[in-house]
Amino acid sequence: MVTPGEFTGLPGGVAVSRLCVYDWPAADGVRGGTPHLHLACAEAYVVTGGRGAVQTLTASGYAVTPLVPGTVAWFTPGTIHRLVDEDALRITVLMQNSGLPEAGDAVLTLPPRYLADPEAYAAATTVPAGAPEEERERFTRARRDLAVEGYRALREAPGPEALAAFHRAAAALVRPRIAEWRERWRRGARAAAEATGHHLDLLERGDAGHLAGAVVRVEQPLERGRFGMCGRLDVYRQGR
Q1: pLDDT digit string, tens, across residues 76-114
Q2: What is the DSSP letter of 164?
Q3: Eight-class DSSP state of 184
């Protein structure tokens, strides 16, 4: 169990990655990433270079948010999002729960036949580890294109039922992993909040002893150029 003061992750239990959005054109002519949603986590974009947009689909409808340097955009669980590259879009991504969105809390908008079969979904979405880069790129593009197919069907569907059915299928897919996700939350965001509460208790008593244990930490990417859902990722240590 993480005790107050032990938490060593980024502030608030978030995680960070640097993203170069894919410039690959899809069947609809749009260049960009793989449409997907997160079920338990919010995610934020801090735009650092280039130009583009994020397309979003929720129960409230479809929207397009322009992304230019200086823009900070974020969305809550349940938001289907598709990053669009218009001119070398570069983003720093902030993710809840020690990076859980990139570590499992994501369901791609594949057609229903894949969502109903966990093995078929895994086969269509898991980038083959250890494969040559050219093969991993081909797989990632094919995965993106399949998700765009399902995403376009959701956008074009009349009424709310298609989106609601996707939400139900996504929840069923991730249910076996909830215990794992809960542990990441417990050791990350919850531990960070509890550490703050502990510090406030100490300060309320006039005890400043914890300040003597102050440290400075610096991180460099653990991996550069990973094939992610939306683009090539520079990945940092995600919490403990």
Answers
A1: 999 999 999 999 999 999 999 999 999 999 999 999 999
A2: H
A3: H
